[in-house]
Amino acid sequence: MSGDEGGSHLSENTDSTAGDSAATGTTPAVGGATADAGTRGSRRGRRKKKAGWLKVTLLTLLSMVLVIVLAFVGFALYLNHVLTSNIKHGAALPTAAIPAAKDAGDAQNILLIGSDTRSGSVTNTRQNARSDVIQLVHISAGQKSVQIIHFPRDLYVAIPGHGKNKINASFAYGGPALLAQTVSNLLGGLTINRYAIIDFKGFADLTNDLGGVNVYVAQAFSEPGFGTFHKGYNKMNGDQALGFVRERHQLAEGDIDRGRDQQAWIAAVLHKTLSAGTLLNPLKLTETVKDLTKYTEVDQGTSAGDLRGLAFDLRNLRSGDVTYFTAPFTGFGMNPVAGSIDIVNVPQMKKLGQALYHDKMAEYTNGRNDIR
Q: Domains of the chain by range and CATH?
């Protein structure tokens, strides 16, 4: 084979390849690169669209969260305004006779007082009024549990500066400060950290704000001016609840049983208040806060911030964490000045004082009430 023949052969092969490429309309090497570039461009486009969609979604979600946060903050500020504007302050509490027990931690005692006035004005809660509701609320260390102790208004006790009389006479003599001092002395000098007085109209309005409450009635009764109730659960509106917590004449143990009925109402209110239907309903929650404060007076040392902090600390509390008691007594008697009285069980009262002082109420069982 000559050189010319070899060159001619190569030329023919090259021409053939070129012809094939021309016939198919493709250039193998260059055409492959173009296809890859197109695929990469398509992928980049899809990634850009996806990134854009994610950005829009995230911005939308962030905007929604921001609106919710702003609404929540605005609502919280409004509730704070309601609380600060409505709450009234009364006399300061007396200085504790003995320092708080170290083993009690941050446990505290709040005296809850119900005034029998129905004036609709907290400023009149002490004018010619009696304390028909005297309940001591003990909040355990760490806010893990609450004990509510009813002090019957006819308990015959020593009142500082006034000799012996029914315990509710101390309220008439010297308002909530003297009543707190009387209860403290009765319990061996226990520190009363706060007090709160609520007008009876507040009882009624609070009940109505909650849409009524289901109260368990242990003893059926029917009395003009107080209402008619069957044994078992009764759905009560404000006026019905007010008659229920005031009735004592037809109850087997009079004021003792009235205190238990008051605790049954408290239990029903707690159950309704702590339910999601109230806490997550802005309108209902606002009205509840309004009526909890509009007819309420607290001691001079309790601020709106203290009440907010207390509410926050008790946020995990449930109805099952609350137990109810009646302060110990041995029976009933008559006094020529005071009239019918409840006689204090002194040894048991001392034990109750120690259980409260050392935050050991889990070990105290005397006078425990079965409140549903």
A: 87-369 (3.40.630.190)
Alpha carbons 368 and 352: distance in angstroms, whole number:
11
pLDDT score at 280: 57
**What does residue 368 show for φ and ψ, rounded to 5 degrees?**
-70, 135
Give the pairing of strands 88-89 and 296-298.
parallel
> Per-residue b/e over 266-278, b at no fewer than 16 CB within 10 Å?
bbbbbbbbbeeeb
What confidence tens digit (pLDDT) does each residue in 204-222 have? Answer: 888 998 889 999 999 999 9
- What is the Rg, in whole angstroms, of the alpha carbon atoms belonging to the chain? 38
Return the closest-CA partner of residue 155 out of 140, 142, 141, 165.
165
Give how far Cα 61 sits from Cα of 48, 53, 75, Å.
Answer: 20, 12, 21
The first and second tokens of residue 68, run together, are: 């919710």
239-294 pLDDT, tens per residue? 999 999 999 999 999 999 999 999 999 999 988 887 756 555 666 666 767 767 77
Average pLDDT, the chain: 81
Distance CA(34)–CA(40), nearest Å, equals 10
Q: How confident is the model at residue 23 (pLDDT cuts 50, 70, 90)?
A: very low
Q: Are 295 and 122 in contact (CB under 8 A)?
A: yes
CB-neighbour burial class of residue 365 (10 A; exposed 0-12, middle 13-18, buried 19+): exposed
Which H/E stretch holds residue 39? helix 28-86
pTM: 0.76
Which residues have CB under 8 Å from 295's CB, separation 6+? 120, 121, 122, 125, 198, 199, 201, 202, 205
Q: Which residues contact 39 (CB under 8 A, 6 or more apart)?
A: none
Gap between the Cα atoms of 216 and 234, Å rounded: 6
What's the N-to-C CA distance of the chain in angstroms? 117
> 152: which 2 tokens?
């019957």
Burial profile 84-100: b = 16 or more Cβ within 10 angstroms, e = fewer: eebbeebbebeeeeeeb
Q: 304 with 289: CB under 8 angstroms?
A: no
